[in-house]
């Protein structure tokens, strides 16, 4: 099993990365949430990994945080959710926002993620509720009981309601996260960033 890679980021072409470690180039598939945290090509990088062996392929997946990797591992155990849909979920919503959707049984928010239909969203809510509570600390911390929505999550929901794709809304909010602390300020700053 390959637990992590520490080397030089050679190339990044979503959803794939090329990381050189000791003269060997590893092709790694990663969600957009990880891409947003990557350095420029040629810079050192460390990625937590999950190695998936199937009949037709061997694929290495990379993640910026332990919570992302744990959520990915939990998602691929859900019936009908393969690695590609798990990557799409991590690309379209943060770990915390996903946990909040499951906790609130908000299937409508999950169906906004490309590749997630109503049946899949319902299955995710049913199967992930207990897994999130029982999982190890990094992922369990994303789902405290009675968690309130943060300004960032409310701003994310508002941008998606305005027609932005989840990945684009996440990217815009990442750009402006230090410009405001309230929901209205974050939305305004994100819309101004999008207009530039």
At CATH level 3, the topology of the largest domain is DNA polymerase, domain 1
The percentage of residues in β strands lies in: 15-25%
Question: How many domains?
Answer: 3
Q: Specify the CATH architecture of the largest domain.
A: Orthogonal Bundle
Rg, alpha carbons: 17 Å
Relevant CATH superfamily of the largest domain = 5' to 3' exonuclease, C-terminal subdomain
Structural class, by secondary structure, is alpha+beta
Ends apart, CA distance between termini: 44 Å
Strand order of the largest sheet: 3-2-1-4-5
The helical percent reads 40-55%
Number of strands: 5
Characterize the overall form: globular
The biggest beta sheet reads:
5 strands, antiparallel
Question: Which residues form runs of ≥5 with pLDDT under 50?
Answer: 143-148
Describe it for me?
It is a single chain. With 196 residues, this protein is an alpha+beta fold. It has helices spanning 32-35, 66-75, 83-92, 95-104, 107-110, 118-134, 137-140, 151-161, 166-176, 183-195, and strands at 4-13, 16-21, 24-29, 44-53, 58-63. A hairpin with a 4-residue loop joins strand 4 (44-53) and strand 5 (58-63). Helix 4 packs across helix 6 (118-134) and helix 8 crosses helix 9 (166-176). The chain is globular.
């Amino acid at each position: 099993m390959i637990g992590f890679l520490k080397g030089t980021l050679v190339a990044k072409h979503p959803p794939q990365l090329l990381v050189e470690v000791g003269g060997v180039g590893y092709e790694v598939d990663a969600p957009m949430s990880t891409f947003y945290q990557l350095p420029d090509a040629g810079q050192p990088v460390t990625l937590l990994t999950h190695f998936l062996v199937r009949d037709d392929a061997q694929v290495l997946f990379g993640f910026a945080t332990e919570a992302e990797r744990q959520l990915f591992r939990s998602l691929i155990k859900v019936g009908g959710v393969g690695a590609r849909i798990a990557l799409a979920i991590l690309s379209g919503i943060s770990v915390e926002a996903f946990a909040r959707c499951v906790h609130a049984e908000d299937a409508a928010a999950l169906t906004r993620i490309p590749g997630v239909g109503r049946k899949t969203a319902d299955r995710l809510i049913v199967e992930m509720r207990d897994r999130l509570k029982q999982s190890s600390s990094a992922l369990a911390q994303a789902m405290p009981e009675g968690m309130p929505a943060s300004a960032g999550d409310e701003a994310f929901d508002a941008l998606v309601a305005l027609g932005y794709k989840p990945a684009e809304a996440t990217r815009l909010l990442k750009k402006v996260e230090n410009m405001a602390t309230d929901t209205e300020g974050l939305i305004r700053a994100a819309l101004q960033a999008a207009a530039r």
